[in-house]
UniProtKB/TrEMBL annotation:
Gene3D superfamilies: 3.30.70.120. InterPro entries: N-reg_PII, N-reg_PII-like_a/b, N-reg_PII/ATP_PRibTrfase_C. This is P-II family nitrogen regulator. It holds the Pfam family P-II. PROSITE patterns: PII_GLNB_DOM. It comes from Aporhodopirellula aestuarii.
Length: 105
């Protein structure tokens, strides 16, 4: 089994979840997160003052799948989370982690 952990833009959550559910992967866990990668935060202006937002809001989507399904799930997440045809910096990151055992409570 493989744990797939995807860090995505909050506005992409509904499209990613819909695509996963249509493909039969409905069991997911969703968490809020703050962080930044290559985009290094953002600058904004409020009432004439410029300030920097170092930590941006992200969503962490996690699901455990069989090894033979991992590539399909990664493709679904990648295709539904990116902006445009090529994607952009800040669209997210996907990690795969081997799972030794899953125990149902």
């Amino acid at each position: 089994m493989i744990l797939i952990q995807a860090i995505i833009q909050p506005i992409r959550l509904s499209s990613v979840r819909s695509a996963l559910e249509e493909a039969g992967y409905a069991e997911t866990m969703v968490s809020d997160a703050l962080g930044y990668g290559r985009q290094r935060g953002q600058t904004a202006t409020f009432r004439g003052n410029e300030y920097r937002i170092d930590l941006l809001r992200k969503i962490i989507l996690e699901l455990v799948v069989d090894e033979e399904d991992a590539d399909e799930v990664i493709s679904i997440i990648r295709d539904s989370a990116k902006r445009g045809t090529e994607g952009e910096i800040g669209d997210g990151k996907i990690f795969t982690i081997p799972v030794a055992e899953a125990i149902t409570i």
